[in-house]
Specification:
- The chain is mainly alpha-helical.
- The chain has one domain.
- Helices cover 66% and strands 2% of the residues.
- It has helices at residues 2-34, 40-56, 59-69, 78-98, 104-118, 124-159, 189-223, 229-245, 248-254, 264-283, 290-306, 312-317, 367-394; strands spanning 170-173, 180-183.
- The protein has a two-stranded antiparallel ribbon with strand order 1-2.
- β1 (170-173) and β2 form a beta hairpin.
- The protein is globular and about 70 Å long.
- The two termini are 14 Å apart.
- 51% of the residues are buried.
Length: 398
């Protein structure tokens, strides 16, 4: 019987990792694949490797929090671990049904908190620390992105103009007597640096995703002593990699996430800010929601870009500027493979840039949709908490 339960637990853990890999790969490598910088197979391979690296380094701290920080060590049994992972898997399923990504980190914490409430073993101090960071981290992402949007984004637009040339980016040369990578026949140094930056940031996002999400797939099993930490990390990364090589191919086709609907430069800024915030939280052992952090980063970046039409003193004295997040989609914003419409355009100082200089090419987010994402990101963990409390309180055989 124990062997059967163990197999079930391992399969559910793989299923959770599989779904995480399917969604996280498109978030991390959508811009790189969409700009034809890297293939889907290459993206899946890099996603698997860097997610494993993230889980094996700072992700260990998150595993400790989930397996013994929220409830005392020894609370988990194999049966309880299966139920908790079931709730996380159901959250992923629910997110697919309603079209809004559920936070596996917040759902996992919610299910474990429900267990703690049902057994009167919840570590309220640890929960308070986690919830505090859940509130603070999106605000940090908003303000960092807002500062970048207001003061740095126009200059970054000028610096990041990268045009893709025909032919291979790099070639293999044997002139030195051994294989050596050299720039392609038409590749410029600017193109090589810009393209490498796109791939590098994607790998950084994969690292951050592994640090925050690999623990969600395995922490309950580690807490029940069914798996060691190292075995759990390998299992979680394997499930994530399986999803990256399979179901992620479809999401990469449509680049189906909010981040990759942005201009490439904006997507990369959001990626760096969000990944850094989540990686720092993982180092602190705090399970975090990448989607909420990224959403607030998008809003902050657009808000900062749009407020360039007025100085701070003008905004205080007069009506606030007409803030449209479509400001990020300015027609001269370059992407890898694109060119500026006017290479001689100069960045206007803050307060002198008119609204006509920030064309509303498209809305990067719709307020109602944003509110729905943030609402469901908090409702789903609350449901998981309540459901876990009921199950663990009134199912004594667990």
């Amino acid at each position: 019987m124990v062997a059967v339960l163990l197999v079930v637990g391992l399969l559910i853990s793989l299923f959770v990792g599989f779904n995480i890999g399917g969604s996280s790969t498109s978030v991390a490598f959508g811009p790189a694949v969409g700009s034809k910088t890297i293939s889907k197979v290459g993206a899946a391979a890099l996603m698997t490797g860097f997610a494993l690296l993230g889980g094996a380094t700072v992700g260990r701290n998150v595993i400790t929090t989930l397996s013994e920080g929220i409830v005392p060590q020894g609370t988990f049994t194999l049966e309880i671990s299966i139920v908790v992972l079931f709730f996380v898997g159901m959250a992923l399923f629910l997110s697919n049904v309603v079209g809004v990504p559920a936070s596996t980190s917040m759902t996992a914490v919610g299910a474990i908190a429900g267990l703690g409430l049902a057994t009167n073993s919840l570590n309220w101090g640890e929960m308070g620390r986690i919830v505090t960071w859940w509130i603070v981290s999106p605000l940090i992402a908003f303000w960092i992105s807002g500062v970048i949007g207001r003061y740095l984004y126009p200059r970054l637009v000028e610096w990041f103009a990268v045009t893709q040339t025909e032919g291979a980016l790099v070639t293999v040369s044997h002139d030195a007597g051994f294989p050596w990578l050299t720039l392609g026949p038409n590749t410029t140094r600017r193109e090589f640096v810009g393209t490498s930056l796109v791939v590098g940031i994607a790998c950084y996002m994969a690292f951050s995703a592994g640090a925050s999400n690999v623990p969600n797939a395995v922490a309950p099993l580690v807490g029940s002593d069914v798996l060691t930490v190292n075995q759990g990390i390998l299992l979680g990364a394997a499930g994530l990699g399986l999803g990256a090589f399979t179901i992620a191919r479809r999401t990469l086709d449509t680049v189906g996430n909010d981040l990759t609907e942005l201009p490439l430069l904006a997507a990369l800024i959001v990626a760096v800010v969000s990944s850094t915030v989540v990686a720092i939280l993982s180092e602190l052992g705090v399970p975090a929601s990448f989607v909420i952090v990224a959403t607030m980063s998008i809003v902050g970046l657009g808000w900062g870009r749009a407020t360039r039409t007025a100085t701070i003193s003008d905004a205080v004295r007069d009506d606030p500027p007409d803030v449209s997040v479509g400001a990020l989609a300015a027609e001269d914003a370059p992407t890898v493979g694109g060119e500026r419409t006017d290479p001689d355009i100069e960045t206007e100082p803050i307060g002198e840039e008119g609204t006509e200089d920030i064309p509303e090419a498209s809305d990067l987010f719709e307020p109602g949709t944003t509110a729905r994402v943030i609402l469901l990101q908090n409702v789903v963990p609350a449901i998981a908490t309540a459901a876990a409390f009921v199950v663990f309180r009134y199912a004594p055989w667990l």
